[in-house]
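Try it yourself: sequence plus pyridoxal-5'-phosphate, in.
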Amino acid sequence: MTFGIPREAEIAVAGPGAAATAVADVRLPAGPGATAGGAAPAAPPARSVTPPAGGSAFDHHGGEAYRPGTPHAQARIDLAAIRANVSRLCDAAGSAEVMAVVKADGYGHGMVAAARAALAGGATWIGVAGMREALALRAAAVPGRLLAWLLTPGDDWNSAVAAGVELSAGAEWAVRAAVRAAHAVGRPARLHLEAETGLGRGGATASDWPALVDTAARAEAAGSVQVVGVWSHLARADESGHPGCDQQVANFRSAAERARQAGLTPEVLHLSNSAATVTLPEARFDLVRPGLAVYGLSPVPGLAGPAELGLRPAMTLTARLASVKRVPAGHGVSYGHRYRTPRETTLGLVPVGYADGVPRHASQAGPVLVAGRRHRVAGTVCMDQFVVDLGDVPATPGDEVVLFGPGDRGEPGAQDWARAAHTISHEIVTRIGARVPRTYTDGTVSGTC
Ligand SMILES: *Cc1c(COP(=O)(O)O)cnc(C)c1O
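Structure, out:
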């Protein structure tokens, strides 16, 4: 099994901005066989860095870090890990450029901070789903080329075109909306035409594609738009070797060819998400669009973990025990008493729940690390809290509970929570709620926090 990612023990953080940051901050674990729980690299002291400017709906976490008192829970984001992951993805992408996907508040890591770290790691493009996300990035003065691909007629097309946001068009109405905006603001709209090649989601189907490219070519000839990209998205990139990927690559090539026949000369063809970036070289084209891997999580967890891919998880989610108590055998725990203590034991109360993004589906299953030992959620995850059975381990209120992180201290990973909740790690990090403050560090944090 080979991945496109080279497996050197160390990578140098390359790309714009890298020189200004500590290049060797992140030493990625050695290649195959290295486990995230193995010998931790020498950790430089954590430096707190300025969180992204607050104010918009998309970077509401920033200001939280400055509230007095220790938060019940916090998500610590290692920006050096994001930089190094992107650098690794740039290596994997070969001659293709990297668009770091920072939609959904940077998969829960903070959109602006994630975008800046990704650009410092060598990404040249930033990708988001919605126009509001794109405009928030522009408002925060994040540089780089910027694409938004999930648009509706009611979006603020004028502001997006005026701000130089590149826009997806998967239907003729979108080309018309772009043309109207271009005329309104006096600048051509830059479009990426979306082909439906087999995902069964957005984009023009094979039968609608000729009309879309012809309409776009006319708008381009009139000077209203520039068609800079043709793109699509894969349905089964995480199922390595699935023939559906080959079929989509072939369909994509045909769509690009039909665009050329219409007289279009797109600068970039792009098809790959994280999974395709690391496992499907033939789908890289000119630009790859990794999201999950930017944050150091494996897009192909059945094949390889983050360490084997040369990635480092950037988010560590911790909480502080809110209560600790001794109870007898047979004590029913949490709603529905789905857990009953098998013997006299100590219960610890963890003050995060499904309102904070801890999946209720991980009741009786989600793993945590307390004082160096793994435990599981005991009983049902509630809105604000859940319980762990600590056995006879001494514990006091305020003790740290690690829900997931990069694994340096033997803590679970986001993928372990994904497995416990029968979902994917994308959802685990993205769903971490606004009530959990994000704290930014630049380098590996070790020890207590
Ligand atoms: C979310 C998304 C990506 C990134 O996907 P990952 O699996 O997180 O790498 C890329 N392209 C599009 C169109 C997306 O919606």
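One thing you can check immediately is this: Residues 101, 103, 149, 233, 273-274, 289-292, 299, 426 surround pyridoxal-5'-phosphate (CB under 6 Å).
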